[in-house]
Amino acid sequence: MKSKTQNKSYREWFSADELHVESKKWNSELEFAKDEQKFLNNMVKDYTLDIIDANMFNTIKPVVEMLDTLEKDLQKLFKRVRLHENQLQIMVDDVDQKRMENAYLDTHADLKEEVEEYFEQYRDTKTKMFNIVSKVIKKKKQKRLLN
Fold first, then answer.
1. Which long-range contacts does 64-71 make (Cβ < 8 Å, 24+ apart)?
2. Are 84 and 111 in contact (CB under 8 A)?
3. Contact criterion met (CB below 8 Å) for 19 and 106
4. Predicted confidence band of residue 3 (pLDDT cuts 50, 70, 90)
5. 13 three-class SS
6. By C-alpha distance, which of 44, 65, 51 is closest to 125?
7. Residues contacting 76, CB < 8 A, separation 6+
8. What residues contact 91, with CB distance under 8 A and at least 6 apart?
9. Do residues 42 and 128 touch, judged by C-beta distance below 8 A?
10. How far apart are alpha carbons 140 and 54 in whole angstroms?
11. 132-138: which pairs have CB atoms within 8 A and are 24 or more residues apart?
12. Are 78 and 34 within 8 A, CB to CB?
């Protein structure tokens, strides 16, 4: 007689409060990134002539394109986080729905990974942007001092 082997996987179980707090944190961070991206876009617009003057246009172009991509990704991620937060009811109702609760936790784990990856790319792009604009400003100051 063959015995069935059961593959059980265990996961960390978060309370509804912990899930809510983490979702709120993501929401807040994404809101801040949205505002920060407006600032970065304005900064590039303000320094466009200086960037062209410093022959840095080809250097900044892929960074600006990446920022545009990240803005689009931000909107999608923001919607997913809000939807996820709205579905938190599954975890707090008194109905025992293991499949639904597990699906919610899976989605939460996936979102956590997506948010972390997003901010890793975002920080990298932001750093590149500031480094390029800093160089442009330094060149502008040097040019002004020489004249």
1. 64/129, 66/121, 66/125, 67/37, 67/40, 67/41, 67/125, 67/129, 70/37, 70/118, 70/121, 70/122, 70/125, 71/37
2. yes
3. no
4. low
5. coil
6. 65
7. none
8. 16, 19, 101, 104
9. no
10. 8
11. 132/51, 132/56, 132/59, 132/60, 132/63, 133/43, 133/44, 133/47, 133/51, 133/60, 135/54, 135/56, 136/47, 136/50, 136/51, 136/54, 136/56, 137/47, 137/50
12. yes
The C-alpha atoms of residue 139 and residue 117 are separated, in whole angstroms, by: 33
Q: H helices within the chain, ranges in order?
A: 16-46, 48-53, 57-86, 89-92, 98-146
Per mean pLDDT, which range of 20-34, 79-93, 121-135 is the poorest?
79-93
Residue that is written with structure tokens 């082997």 in the block: 5
